[in-house]
Amino acid sequence: MSMGKRNTTMPDATRRRASTNRKMDEIMRLARRLPLTRQVLADQLKTATPAQMEFVDRWMNAEIESREASKRARLLRQAGFPAARELDGYDWQNVRMPADRQRGGLESLGFLDGPEDVVMFGPAGAGKTHLAIALGRKACRQGVPVRFHTAAGLVMRLLRANTEGKLDREPQAIAKARMIVIDELGYVPIDEEGSRLLF
Fold first, then answer.
1. 15: phi > 0 → left, psi -120 to 50 → alpha, else beta; which?
2. What distance lies between CA 168 and its chain's CA centroid?
3. 3-class SS at 183?
4. Would the pLDDT of 65 be above 90?
5. I need a surface site. Which of 42, 79, 129, 159 has the fewest CB within 10 A?
6. In the chain, where the domains are located
7. pLDDT at residue 98 tops 70
8. 74 sits in which H/E element
9. How far is C-alpha 156 from the geometric centre of its chain's CA atoms?
10. What is the SS3 assignment for 103?
11. Close Cβ partners of 92 (under 8 Å, ≥ 6 residues apart)
12. Long-range pairs of 34-42 with CB within 8 A, sequence gap ≥ 24
C-alpha cells in the first residue's frame, strides 16, 4: 500500500521541481534582457505582499553588494599594485608628519578631496611603498580609481607614447584615476626628455 503511494507522489514532486527549474531559467533569461525600470517596479510594489516586498528588498541589497564587490575587485586589479599591502599592522613609528598634518588625515584619504600631492621621502626600506600601496588599496575599496606606477615605468610609457605620436592621449588616460601613485621617484636617473614628460 505504501509503495503505491510513493509511486503516485514522486512524479508530482519531480514535476513540481522541473516546473520550478523552468520558471527559474525563464526569470534568469528575462533578467539578462531587462534593465530595471523604477516606475514599473513602483507599480508592481503597490499590490505586493509584505513577503514579496521583503524578497525584493533582500534581492536588491544582494545585487548592490555584488556590484560594489565587483567594482572594488576591478579597481584593485586595474590599479597595478605590485603587492598587497594594508594599513593594518603598518609601523607608523618612523613616520614624521608635517605640523599641520595628522596621521588620521592621511588614513582618511582626505587629500583626495582636492588637488593635493602627498610626498613621502626617506631612506630605502622605510616603508614608503608599503604605505603608498596601502592607501591606494583603501581608496580602491572606497570606489576611487587608482593607478600605481614606478617613476621609471611611467617615464618609459610617456616616451613610448611620444615616439608613437600619442602623447596627447596618454596623460588623459593616466588622469582618469583620482589617485596616482608614483613610486621610486629619484631612485633611477631620468634624462632631460624623461623629466620633461614626467613633470
1. alpha
2. 27
3. strand
4. yes
5. 42
6. 1-34, 103-198
7. yes
8. helix 50-79
9. 26
10. helix
11. 103
12. none
Cα–Cα distance for residue pair 143/68, rounded to 1 Å = 8
Cell numbers representing residue 87 in the block: 594599513
Q: What is the pLDDT of residues 170-181, one digit of tens each?
A: 888 888 899 999
Q: What's the CATH fold of domain 103-198?
A: Rossmann fold (3.40.50)
How far apart, in whole angstroms, are the C-alpha atoms of residue 72 and residue 67? 9
19-52 pLDDT tens trace? 888 888 887 777 777 777 888 888 888 898 999 9
List strand residue ranges (DSSP E) for the chain, in order.
146-150, 179-183
> For residue 22, what are the contacts with CB-CB under 8 A and spacing of at least 6?
none
Cα within 13 Å of Cα(135), Cβ side: 26
- Beta-carbon contacts of 18 under 8 Å, excluding residues fewer than 6 positions away, are none
Name residue, grid cell 592621511: 106
86-95 residue pLDDT tens:
999 898 988 8
How many other CB atoms sit within 10 Å of the CB of residue 190? Answer: 20
